[in-house]
Amino acid sequence: MMKKKTLISILAVPLVVVAVSGFFYLNTDRVVGAQSETIAAADKATNSQVEYIKISVSSSTYSDCSYQIRIRDRKNLSEVTEDYVGGVLQNKIIVSEEGRRITSIGRDHVTGKLVGNTWTLLVNLANENKKILNISLMEEQKKEMKEQNWVKSVRPQSNDASLQEVVAATNLKKEKVTIDTKTGLPVKREVFVKDKEGNWTEDSVRVEEYKYLDSMPMNLQRMNDEVEIKEITAPIKEDKLLKG
Predict the structure, then answer these.
(1) What is the C-alpha to C-alpha distance for residues 220 and 213, in angstroms, rounded to an integer?
(2) Is the pLDDT reported for residue 41 higher than 80?
(3) Of 27, 94, 224, 244, which is most buried, counting CB atoms within 10 Å of its CB?
(4) Close Cβ partners of 215 (under 8 Å, ≥ 6 residues apart)
């Protein structure tokens, strides 16, 4: 059967986890105030309450491109997360009723069909989810961009003048990020690691898409009739948050 998930575990995990520092130079690049430019871009304000994020990941390890779609409605306090592998939906989490109801849908390992469970959380956990759903995913992403140690900035080869490329690296890992200076949000991340010979090799590429929507798409909040969804008791028995 599918692996059960809870909103607490999903929302507790940052959207992007990157911890890089140091510097990296290319002879053809011009070193400028990358840190100040990134901070200035990330300070741009947004007003929309419905946030759409799509993260596509390709890796040298896996042949199939995978991606995740995440939409948070901070006005109605709901969220939908979908995970795809090879363009096929694998998992879906629907959070509704201001964080109180969780619907978890996944693909059965035996039959390959989508099946699901839905439950309501106890009061304290539901209230914590309500607080989390008020947080802007976009602003958290911008905050992370500002806090990294960017030391290089170049203008990538593109017709879009708003794009800026920044770089940070350690001895073993290098990250190159293209940001949209109109929004302060990343567009593309390229991660490189050193091989045994000390040469940089591409480890993964993340294409990131951020949009503001007028409302939560209704089709994302429901599944087709062929998906069986059962009402169950909440998997978390204790009405308190886990420590750590």
Answers:
(1) 13
(2) no
(3) 94
(4) 50, 73
